[in-house]
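Reopening: OprO/OprP family phosphate-selective porin still failing for me.
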Amino acid sequence: MLFVATGASFAEAQEPAPSSATPSPTSAPAPVGPNFEERLDEIDQRSRIALRKLEMAEEAAAAQAAKEKERAAKDKERANVKIGPSGLSISSADGAYSVALRAILQVDGRIFVNDEHKLTDAFIIRRARPIFDATMGKNFTVRIMPDFGGGQTVLQDAYIDARAANEFGVTVGKFKPTIGLERMQNEQATYFVERGYPSSIIPSRDVGIAIHGDLFEGKLGYSVGMYNGTLDGGAGGDIEFDDSKEFSAHVYVRPFATQARFTRPKFVSGLFIGVGATRGEKTGTPANTYLPVYRTSGQNTFFQYIADTSAGAPAGATTVAAGVENRLTGHIYAPIGPVAFLGEYVIEQERVARGTVSKLITLQAWNVTAAVALTGEDARFEGIVPKNPFDLTKGHVGAIELAARYSGMIIDRDAFGDFANDQRSARYAAEFGAGLNWYATRNYSVKGDYIITEFRSGGATAAGGRRDLEQVFLLRNQIAF
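Support: Ran it again with your exact input. Result attached.
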């Protein structure tokens, strides 16, 4: 009936409207006959065709929607592969799982000045580290990082970090104990080629467990750990042979960590202040003294305890660790626009013994560093990112940074005589350094330092003279991604 009605209406629309005037002899009703029915059939047929086309269009739209839905479902299952300044990474579509491959390569040069060829000028592979990171289910991360630099193979990092929330996480394995500021800074981000003297006293890495977290939206952070214990500046072994353990605690504040940018004072936006402490016990043997040597920025030893390793030497001829070892640290990092200030102080007390004599030895070390990005980039603890990466065709030179440092170490007078020889070891070492760093891109940089180190004692004379000044030019080529 619809088609009939529609056809009728259409027919009415096609017929001239009847005039209201008196019908003329020539006006007559539209004929109803075979032609009219044929037209109705034609209209009905066209309507059916139109309806079918509409049905087909709807079917096609539904099929397309089904394909889009299927494609979206497949996209959710498809892994994302990325390669860029942060290295190569593969992650699941929802980001819950990921693996990343990164690396650091540092090639250093050391040129000593006015040393009368007593010290060795050299080019070395300082660090060559592939880095494997993985995330498992967002709450669990893994890092494995060996180091093939320096003519040896060392497992630097191998840990699992489980973080239930920002306020609570647990790290297990081999990693950096978080008590030293410059030690926590990534190797590729340090202002100078070598770290200052406080990092010589703080363990580089150790095997253990640490609980950590950030409270009050990141304004307060903490870390408490228990480790096997290692010597000053050491990376620790992968296994342990004694029961003694070392405990550490670190607390820091970042008062402006989460404030909105428009209310955050820019000159203190990354302010970081912290204190840390360790307490442990170590008992050494002539074969494993658990005592370090301390080196200058030129990597020359300026202090070491007496060690008699000759055949038949009595057991008491070598100085060894003989009990408690405590450290206390304080540090501050303050970025002020393109200027960064880093300050750190460490004091350590360690009991040593040689033969029947035992004493508690105190060491102190400090580091005051200032740096400025001459090209205007904001100072960052993680390292400068050039505003305009190196590109001569565009007139871009990258980022240039100027740095200065005063750092040193004082060793207790009681260490000399019974435990150390003041003709071979210096009681005091302090360095003045200037550095010029060029960050061509986020990944490639060149650092150049000139370091002058002054000593007290260690002059290799019976009269106890001073060791000669050490002047060294350090150069580093670095790729990190």
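The longest strand covers residues 97-113. If you still see a failure, please send the error message rather than a screenshot.
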